[in-house]
Automatic annotation (TrEMBL):
Protein name as annotated: 2OG-Fe(II) oxygenase
InterPro entries in the cross-refs: BesD/HalB-like, Oxoglu/Fe-dep_dioxygenase_dom
Domain Fe2OG dioxygenase: 133-243
GO molecular function, one term: metal ion binding
Family: Belongs to the iron/ascorbate-dependent oxidoreductase family.
Xref: Pfam families: HalD
TM segment ranges: none
Keywords in alphabetical order: Iron, Metal-binding, Oxidoreductase
Amino acid sequence: MFPAIDLERYPLHRPDSPACTALVARCKADLAQDGMFNLEGFMLPDAIAETVAFAAPRLNAEHAFTHARRHNIYFRPVPELPAGHPALAEVETRNFTLCADQCAGTPVDAIYSWRPLADFLARTMDHQALYPMPDPLARFNVMGYPDGWGLNWHFDRSQFTTTLLLQAPLAGGDFVYRSDLRTQDDPNYDGVAALLRGKDEKVRSFKAEAGTLNVFKGRNTAHRVTPVEGEVPRIIAVFTYYDRPGVTFTREERIGFYGRAE
Ligand SMILES: O=C(O)CCC(=O)C(=O)O
Ligand SMILES: [Fe+2]
């Protein structure tokens, strides 16, 4: 048995079983309704403990990249908008980031690279297949958020994002999101501006427990993580898959997110 995932509850290794088929149907229904689904208790406690024991002593300025910057919701300039447009309002993000190459051989590496997980995620989203990134830094990351730190409003590069919470903070660190704020054809800049002004009634939030796998459609769902409160850092693994093989970050993106290109 694969040691890091609760396969009795989530039988991803038996894709054709009635239990797995029912699970896929449940995830699809949640995605259609909320733009996300959660699998609580996905990662087993021993694997969580092993990963936290590895990552916690490294999520600091000495070992990890301190990702601290002001940015707009797009994490990049938008030439078609005039400077000062309210959709470009800047926000501040701060976390410690460990790249995949720094977490090689850990249980999160094993989970990310486990083919049945990518296959399961593909089924939930009606993709023919999903592929782990070959990018040695960006494949997956482990982020740490100490007291007062958070991830601010953004859209993701990838169509959807998969996270695995490793350690919940005492307070704060909530995942806040607004599903379908834009579409591929409509950037909805007015809606983005309203969200950033705090004037969007469709914003929702939730607080996960350690071990929960969360999947959300991050490309068109604006989302953020509120500042953590208290002495226990929020620690989370973020997995990125694409529907075609070979996708990597550009050199500029690697430097922006990780402070190094290789
Ligand atoms: O930490 C989270 O829950 C979300 C992470 C995220 O949005 C990202 O890495 O793009
Ligand atoms: Fe994100």
